[in-house]
Amino acid sequence: MVFPRSTNSEYMGSSVSLVILGLGVVMTVIPALIHTFLPDGGANVIAGMGVDLDSEHGQRVVALMAWAGATQLAWGAVMLSVLFRYRSLTPLILGLIAIERIIHAWTMWGPKGGDHHPPEAYVTLIVIPLFALGFILSLTTRKTKESG
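and the corresponding structure tokens:
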């Protein structure tokens, strides 16, 4: 059920989905820390954008990277809370992650992407099917010992 009646730790979906959600946490929190705390926000060091950090435009890029990092930190905190406390929300969160990654891929490889593709652009293509699978598996019901 994508929208559970209650937000609690009761989760009957596949445990594989929880592992995939854990991967989502790692893939969100690590870039968040990079974007927030590296002096260039990862624009040059990780993404290889070649931004002149001394220019006004360079500072705008760094500010945008930090903004993205702040958003990722908040999103990562939501994922962590679902993973450790509110597991009934696992299908909803995995579905949202899949949608987010599809939009990321579209913007990075589509009309707004340009010729430069940072490492995340390639990783995103790989993980879209993984998060979609996690979503689908989270909707299945595990068999318990009592139900056979």
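(Above: one complete record from the training split.) The chain has a mean pLDDT of 90.
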